[in-house]
Amino acid sequence: MADRSKITTWLTDMDGVLVHEGQVLKGATELIKQWQDSGTPFLVLTNNSIYTPRDLSARLRAGGLDVPEDRIWTSALATAAFLQSQSPNGTAYVIGETGLTQALHDVGYTQTDTNPDYVVLGETRNFNFENLTKAVRLINAGARFIATNPDATGPSAEGVLPATGSVAALITKATGKHPYIVGKPNPMMFRSAMRKIGAHSETTGMIGDRMDTDVVAGIEAGLHTVLVLTGIADDAEIQKYPFRPTEILDSVADLLH
User: Is 201 found in the same domain as 174?
Assistant: First the structure.
């Protein structure tokens, strides 16, 4: 594995690495500025498919972190890129928010509930019994089942929320079909991100706060992996896994120079 001096491109998770519940974490503002000032290619990654890159950029800016929209790569964008490579200009029945519907629209996908090629499930707060039933019937009729990410729960100020993985489990139980999941921990999300900025695995680092998504996907994609302790992971969590990141740091402030 390359030492950090060989790293010329960076991918970084967003929640738990750069921000936590809307608050910018230690070193994040300075690190983004350092990368921009030095011309270092980077992308901020998120499994959240609700928002478009423009929305996320505005939300980060409101919190004090300046990340241009073209530096943001979501599981929705990765899913759209995957579907376009598999079945160009295909059709999909989508359960999801603007981030996902816009990403599919932008690659030329038609959204329909009549014999679609795919049923695509993303993060949503607005699913109901009717669209779940429709998804189940379309998958049973032959549509292929895709999910943006596997996260069973997501955070909120009031506590955990059921997320994409929970809804996918319901559909799987009803159909017997498991989704193909494009977002982390599928290393495909990192590969599509690297393609977007012309990066190579030997010289790319991945910064994350989760062993079960960021680190394992980074290892599988052949990247230099950095685990920061500002999010999910602590020593007890790290010990649960048989693999290790290249580096463990207190925060992204330790990457400043």
Answer: no
